Protein backbone atom coordinates (compact mmCIF):
# COMPACT_ATOMS: atom_id res chain seq x y z
CA UNK A 1 0.00 0.00 0.00
CA UNK A 2 2.78 2.44 0.92
CA UNK A 3 4.64 1.80 -2.35
CA UNK A 4 1.43 2.32 -4.32
CA UNK A 5 0.75 5.61 -2.55
CA UNK A 6 4.28 6.85 -3.22
CA UNK A 7 3.84 5.91 -6.88
CA UNK A 8 0.74 8.07 -7.13
CA UNK A 9 2.32 11.47 -6.82
CA UNK A 10 2.78 12.09 -3.11
CA UNK A 11 6.37 13.14 -3.39
CA UNK A 12 7.43 16.77 -3.07
CA UNK A 13 6.44 18.77 -6.13
CA UNK A 14 4.43 15.91 -7.64
CA UNK A 15 0.83 16.30 -8.71
CA UNK A 16 -1.23 19.39 -8.02
CA UNK A 17 -3.18 20.74 -5.10
CA UNK A 18 -2.60 20.38 -1.36
CA UNK A 19 -0.81 17.24 -0.24
CA UNK A 20 -3.75 16.01 1.83
CA UNK A 21 -5.98 16.19 -1.27
CA UNK A 22 -3.46 14.13 -3.24
CA UNK A 23 -3.32 11.56 -0.45
CA UNK A 24 -7.11 11.37 -0.33
CA UNK A 25 -7.29 10.91 -4.13
CA UNK A 26 -4.61 8.23 -4.03
CA UNK A 27 -6.39 6.27 -1.29
CA UNK A 28 -9.70 6.59 -3.14
CA UNK A 29 -8.03 5.22 -6.26
CA UNK A 30 -6.73 2.19 -4.38
CA UNK A 31 -10.25 1.50 -3.11
CA UNK A 32 -11.89 1.95 -6.52
CA UNK A 33 -9.35 -0.35 -8.18
CA UNK A 34 -9.89 -3.04 -5.58
CA UNK A 35 -6.37 -2.81 -4.18
CA UNK A 36 -7.90 -1.86 -0.83
CA UNK A 37 -10.82 -4.16 -0.09
CA UNK A 38 -13.94 -3.33 1.92
CA UNK A 39 -13.26 -3.79 5.62
CA UNK A 40 -9.46 -3.39 5.28
CA UNK A 41 -7.90 -1.68 8.29
CA UNK A 42 -5.93 1.46 7.43
CA UNK A 43 -2.75 2.50 9.25
CA UNK A 44 -3.09 4.97 12.10
CA UNK A 45 -2.32 8.61 11.38
CA UNK A 46 1.14 8.47 12.99
CA UNK A 47 2.11 5.22 11.26
CA UNK A 48 1.00 6.35 7.80
CA UNK A 49 2.64 9.77 8.22
CA UNK A 50 5.91 8.12 9.22
CA UNK A 51 5.82 5.61 6.36
CA UNK A 52 5.14 8.34 3.77
CA UNK A 53 7.39 10.89 5.49
CA UNK A 54 4.65 13.51 5.57
CA UNK A 55 3.03 15.46 8.38
CA UNK A 56 0.52 13.79 10.67
CA UNK A 57 -1.87 16.71 10.15
CA UNK A 58 -1.82 15.94 6.41
CA UNK A 59 -2.93 12.35 7.06
CA UNK A 60 -5.56 13.46 9.57
CA UNK A 61 -7.04 15.96 7.09
CA UNK A 62 -7.05 13.38 4.27
CA UNK A 63 -8.80 10.85 6.51
CA UNK A 64 -11.34 13.50 7.51
CA UNK A 65 -12.20 14.12 3.84
CA UNK A 66 -12.51 10.39 3.16
CA UNK A 67 -14.75 9.92 6.20
CA UNK A 68 -17.01 12.72 4.97
CA UNK A 69 -17.28 11.15 1.50
CA UNK A 70 -17.94 7.67 2.88
CA UNK A 71 -14.84 6.04 1.43
CA UNK A 72 -13.62 5.06 4.89
CA UNK A 73 -15.29 4.65 8.27
CA UNK A 74 -14.13 5.01 11.84
CA UNK A 75 -15.00 2.29 14.35
CA UNK A 76 -14.81 3.36 17.95
CA UNK A 77 -11.98 1.58 19.70
CA UNK A 78 -10.93 -0.32 16.57
CA UNK A 79 -9.50 2.19 14.11
CA UNK A 80 -10.16 3.30 10.55
CA UNK A 81 -11.36 0.94 7.83
CA UNK A 82 -12.32 0.95 4.17
CA UNK A 83 -16.12 1.27 4.17
CA UNK A 84 -18.24 -1.79 3.58
CA UNK A 85 -19.99 -1.44 0.23
CA UNK A 86 -22.54 -3.90 -1.09
CA UNK A 87 -23.29 -4.80 -4.67
CA UNK A 88 -26.61 -3.25 -5.59
CA UNK A 89 -29.43 -5.68 -6.32
CA UNK A 90 -32.13 -4.96 -8.88
CA UNK A 91 -35.36 -6.48 -7.60
CA UNK A 92 -38.38 -6.71 -9.95
CA UNK A 93 -41.71 -5.88 -8.37
CA UNK A 94 -43.87 -7.88 -10.77
CA UNK A 95 -42.63 -11.31 -9.61
CA UNK A 96 -43.52 -12.93 -6.29
CA UNK A 97 -40.53 -14.90 -5.03
CA UNK A 98 -38.84 -15.65 -1.76
CA UNK A 99 -35.64 -13.94 -0.67
CA UNK A 100 -33.85 -17.31 -0.70
CA UNK A 101 -34.92 -18.20 -4.24
CA UNK A 102 -34.09 -14.73 -5.51
CA UNK A 103 -30.57 -14.77 -4.06
CA UNK A 104 -29.86 -18.27 -5.38
CA UNK A 105 -30.95 -17.17 -8.86
CA UNK A 106 -28.21 -14.53 -8.67
CA UNK A 107 -25.56 -17.02 -7.63
CA UNK A 108 -25.49 -15.77 -4.06
CA UNK A 109 -25.86 -17.80 -0.88
CA UNK A 110 -28.92 -16.78 1.16
CA UNK A 111 -29.12 -17.11 4.92
CA UNK A 112 -31.31 -15.98 7.77
CA UNK A 113 -30.65 -15.19 11.39
CA UNK A 114 -33.61 -15.37 13.74
CA UNK A 115 -34.04 -12.19 15.76
CA UNK A 116 -37.28 -13.20 17.45
CA UNK A 117 -39.75 -16.07 17.15
CA UNK A 118 -42.98 -16.10 19.16
CA UNK A 119 -46.48 -17.55 18.99
CA UNK A 120 -49.26 -15.32 20.25
CA UNK A 121 -52.87 -14.26 19.62
CA UNK A 122 -53.33 -11.85 16.70
CA UNK A 123 -53.55 -8.14 17.36
CA UNK A 124 -57.00 -6.65 16.67
CA UNK A 125 -55.92 -5.19 13.31
CA UNK A 126 -54.37 -8.53 12.34
CA UNK A 127 -57.61 -10.42 12.91
CA UNK A 128 -59.21 -8.31 10.18
CA UNK A 129 -56.21 -8.39 7.83
CA UNK A 130 -55.60 -12.14 8.18
CA UNK A 131 -59.24 -13.14 8.49
CA UNK A 132 -58.72 -14.77 11.90
CA UNK A 133 -60.62 -15.15 15.12
CA UNK A 134 -59.11 -13.77 18.31
CA UNK A 135 -58.41 -17.33 19.49
CA UNK A 136 -56.41 -18.33 16.36
CA UNK A 137 -52.68 -17.92 17.13
CA UNK A 138 -50.07 -16.54 14.76
CA UNK A 139 -46.35 -17.07 14.37
CA UNK A 140 -44.30 -13.87 14.58
CA UNK A 141 -40.96 -14.43 12.90
CA UNK A 142 -38.39 -11.62 12.81
CA UNK A 143 -35.31 -12.49 10.78
CA UNK A 144 -32.20 -10.82 9.43
CA UNK A 145 -31.76 -11.81 5.78
CA UNK A 146 -28.23 -12.12 4.42
CA UNK A 147 -26.59 -12.86 1.07
CA UNK A 148 -23.02 -14.19 1.09
CA UNK A 149 -22.91 -13.16 4.74
CA UNK A 150 -23.88 -9.54 4.02
CA UNK A 151 -26.92 -8.21 5.96
CA UNK A 152 -29.50 -6.91 3.47
CA UNK A 153 -32.93 -6.82 5.08
CA UNK A 154 -34.92 -7.29 8.27
CA UNK A 155 -38.13 -9.26 7.74
CA UNK A 156 -40.95 -9.31 10.28
CA UNK A 157 -43.53 -11.89 9.21
CA UNK A 158 -46.89 -12.77 10.75
CA UNK A 159 -48.36 -16.12 9.64
CA UNK A 160 -51.41 -17.97 11.00
CA UNK A 161 -50.26 -21.11 12.80
CA UNK A 162 -52.92 -23.14 10.97
CA UNK A 163 -50.92 -22.67 7.77
CA UNK A 164 -47.45 -23.25 9.13
CA UNK A 165 -47.44 -25.30 12.34
CA UNK A 166 -45.36 -24.47 15.38
CA UNK A 167 -42.08 -26.21 14.61
CA UNK A 168 -41.35 -25.17 11.03
CA UNK A 169 -39.22 -22.39 9.56
CA UNK A 170 -36.00 -21.24 11.06
CA UNK A 171 -33.32 -20.11 8.66
CA UNK A 172 -34.78 -21.34 5.38
CA UNK A 173 -37.42 -19.98 3.04
CA UNK A 174 -40.80 -19.14 4.57
CA UNK A 175 -42.48 -19.69 1.19
CA UNK A 176 -40.87 -23.12 0.86
CA UNK A 177 -42.17 -24.05 4.31
CA UNK A 178 -45.68 -22.90 3.39
CA UNK A 179 -45.56 -24.73 0.06
CA UNK A 180 -44.46 -27.94 1.78
CA UNK A 181 -47.68 -27.86 3.82
CA UNK A 182 -49.81 -27.16 0.75
CA UNK A 183 -50.24 -23.43 1.32
CA UNK A 184 -48.15 -21.82 -1.40
CA UNK A 185 -48.76 -18.08 -1.87
CA UNK A 186 -49.75 -17.27 -5.44
CA UNK A 187 -50.30 -13.51 -5.36
CA UNK A 188 -49.42 -10.56 -3.16
CA UNK A 189 -49.92 -6.85 -2.76
CA UNK A 190 -46.94 -4.73 -1.77
CA UNK A 191 -46.58 -1.18 -0.56
CA UNK A 192 -43.18 0.58 -0.67
CA UNK A 193 -42.29 3.52 1.57
CA UNK A 194 -39.00 5.40 1.84
CA UNK A 195 -37.89 5.54 5.48
CA UNK A 196 -34.81 6.04 7.63
CA UNK A 197 -33.51 3.36 9.97
CA UNK A 198 -33.79 3.66 13.72
CA UNK A 199 -30.57 2.99 15.70
CA UNK A 200 -31.50 -0.63 16.53
CA UNK A 201 -32.36 -1.63 12.96
CA UNK A 202 -29.34 0.24 11.60
CA UNK A 203 -27.05 -1.63 13.99
CA UNK A 204 -28.49 -4.98 12.88
CA UNK A 205 -27.95 -4.05 9.21
CA UNK A 206 -24.46 -2.66 9.96
CA UNK A 207 -25.22 0.84 8.64
CA UNK A 208 -25.42 4.22 10.33
CA UNK A 209 -28.51 5.26 12.28
CA UNK A 210 -30.75 7.33 10.01
CA UNK A 211 -29.52 5.57 6.87
CA UNK A 212 -32.11 5.34 4.07
CA UNK A 213 -34.14 2.17 3.69
CA UNK A 214 -37.20 0.86 1.89
CA UNK A 215 -40.09 -0.38 3.99
CA UNK A 216 -42.07 -3.02 2.11
CA UNK A 217 -45.39 -4.19 3.50
CA UNK A 218 -46.60 -7.36 1.77
CA UNK A 219 -49.89 -9.25 2.07
CA UNK A 220 -49.73 -12.66 0.37
CA UNK A 221 -52.73 -14.79 -0.57
CA UNK A 222 -53.49 -18.37 -1.48
CA UNK A 223 -55.30 -19.38 -4.65
CA UNK A 224 -58.60 -19.29 -2.70
CA UNK A 225 -57.87 -15.65 -1.67
CA UNK A 226 -57.14 -16.42 1.99
CA UNK A 227 -54.32 -14.28 3.44
CA UNK A 228 -51.40 -16.52 4.34
CA UNK A 229 -48.73 -13.96 5.29
CA UNK A 230 -48.30 -10.37 6.35
CA UNK A 231 -44.70 -9.13 6.31
CA UNK A 232 -43.00 -5.82 7.01
CA UNK A 233 -39.44 -5.69 5.68
CA UNK A 234 -36.76 -3.03 5.87
CA UNK A 235 -34.32 -3.25 2.95
CA UNK A 236 -31.03 -1.39 2.93
CA UNK A 237 -31.32 1.66 0.69
CA UNK A 238 -27.71 1.31 -0.46
CA UNK A 239 -28.22 -2.27 -1.61
CA UNK A 240 -31.55 -2.43 -3.46
CA UNK A 241 -33.14 -0.95 -6.55
CA UNK A 242 -36.77 -2.00 -6.96
CA UNK A 243 -37.96 -1.85 -10.56
CA UNK A 244 -41.25 -2.45 -12.31
CA UNK A 245 -42.37 -2.83 -15.91
CA UNK A 246 -45.01 -0.51 -17.30
CA UNK A 247 -47.08 -1.09 -20.43
CA UNK A 248 -48.55 1.75 -22.46
CA UNK A 249 -52.32 1.52 -22.64
CA UNK A 250 -54.24 1.51 -25.90
CA UNK A 251 -55.81 4.88 -25.03
CA UNK A 252 -52.45 6.73 -25.19
From TrEMBL:
Domain (HTH gntR-type) ranges: 17-85
Q: Please give a single GO biological process term from the UniProt record.
A: negative regulation of DNA-templated transcription
A single Pfam family it belongs to is UTRA
Answer yes or no on keyword Cell inner membrane.
no
Q: Which domain of life is it from?
A: Bacteria
CDD domains from the xrefs?
Answer: WHTH_GntR
Molecular function as annotated in GO: DNA binding; DNA-binding transcription factor activity
On whether Protein transport is a keyword of this UniProt record, the answer is no
Record keywords, A-Z: DNA-binding, Transcription, Transcription regulation
Residues spanning the membrane? none
Q: What protein does this entry describe?
A: GntR family transcriptional regulator
Amino acid sequence: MIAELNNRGLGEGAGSGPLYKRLARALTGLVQEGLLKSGTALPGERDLAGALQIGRVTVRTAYRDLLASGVIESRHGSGTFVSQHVERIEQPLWRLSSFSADMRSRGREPAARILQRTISPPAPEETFLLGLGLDEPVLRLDRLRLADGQPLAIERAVVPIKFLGEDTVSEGSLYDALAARGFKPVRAQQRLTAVTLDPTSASILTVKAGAPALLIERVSRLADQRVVEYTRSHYRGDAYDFVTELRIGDDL
